[in-house]
Design brief:
The chain is α/β, with parallel strands linked by helices. It has one domain: P-loop containing nucleotide triphosphate hydrolases (Rossmann fold, 3-Layer(aba) Sandwich), CATH 3.40.50.300. The chain has nine helices and six strands. It has helices spanning 6-9, 19-29, 48-57, 99-106, 121-125, 127-137, 161-171, 186-202, 212-222; strands spanning 34-42, 71-80, 83-92, 111-117, 143-149, 175-177. The longest helix has 17 residues, at 186-202. Guanosine-5'-triphosphate binds at residues 44-50, 61-62, 65, 67-68, 93-95, 149-150, 152-153, 179-181.
């Protein structure tokens, strides 16, 4: 449905096959044990597409901003506790005019990554409205994670780390600050969500519950970083 980043998608390989089509085939055909749907939500221009591209391809989409039209998705298979977990990640358009399109996809998602831009106050102020929409349209037990993106733009920051953390705590959701540009915490955010979903799906009655907050905190400690998580 989406036509975003057409220039990227249309790159041709030497034999004329679209690189985008080849990548799609490879990710669709890759072996996996279990699959989950994850959606990226948040205002336009907070960096949803860039976070997804960073996670999927390890690259940063700089340059001119092209807003997503409708919805798009990418697959990535991760190894979680010896199992192959496929995340089908839906990248939604943040613009208001596409809301009715994206609402239709909420109920199929098992996890939602809700982004704001740490340099844009309105994107942070709108998080409550996004959470209201999520409660209206998504599954009751959906995994939600709040991400404050663009931490590389420290000089332009208007939302303090503590403000993001406080809001996340209020709603009982995990929180991290990310940068699609540098890649900080992007992989960790998706991995934490994949682990939570995998543990939920395979949990035995007497097994201790996977704690996503504790997992994020211990991973951050291992990497020697102290901020950016709850
Ligand atoms: N410096 C910096 N710029 C970023 C980062 N993430 C995204 N951007 C830039 O922010 C702009 C918007 O990024 P997108 O990923 O297209 O935003 P989006 O949330 O997908 O926007 P919609 O498709 O309209 O919903 C682009 O110009 C990106 O290059 C980041 O972590 N750091």
């Amino acid at each position: 449905m989406s036509t975003k980043k057409a220039s990227l998608k249309d790159k041709e390989t030497k034999n004329g096959t679209s690189k985008y089509v080849l990548e799609r085939c490879a990710s669709v055909c890759e072996y996996f044990d279990i699959a989950f749907k994850v959606m990226l939500l948040g205002d336009s221009a907070v960096g949803k597409t860039c976070v997804l591209v960073r996670f999927k391809d390890g690259a940063f989409l700089g340059g001119n901003f092209i807003a997503t039209v409708g919805i798009d998705f990418r697959n990535k298979v991760l190894t979680v506790d010896n199992a192959k977990v496929k995340l089908q990640i839906w990248d939604t358009a943040g613009q208001e005019r596409f809301r009715s399109v994206t609402h239709a996809y909420y109920r199929d998602a098992q996890a939602l990554l809700l982004l704001y831009d740490i340099t844009c106050k309105s994107s942070f102020d709108n998080i409550r409205a996004w959470l209201t929409e999520i409660h209206e349209y998504a599954q009751k037990d959906v995994v939600i994670m709040l991400l404050g993106n663009k931490t590389d733009m420290a000089g332009e920051r208007v939302i303090k780390h503590e403000e993001g953390e406080k809001l996340a705590k209020e709603y009982g959701v995990p929180f991290m600050e990310t940068s699609a540009k540098t890649g900080v915490n992007v992989e960790l955010a998706f991995l934490a969500v994949a682990k939570e979903l995998k543990h939920r799906s395979a949990q035995q009655p007497n097994e201790p519950k996977f704690q996503i907050h504790d997992y994020i905190a211990s991973e951050k400690q291992k990497s020697g970083c102290c901020g950016g998580y709850m």
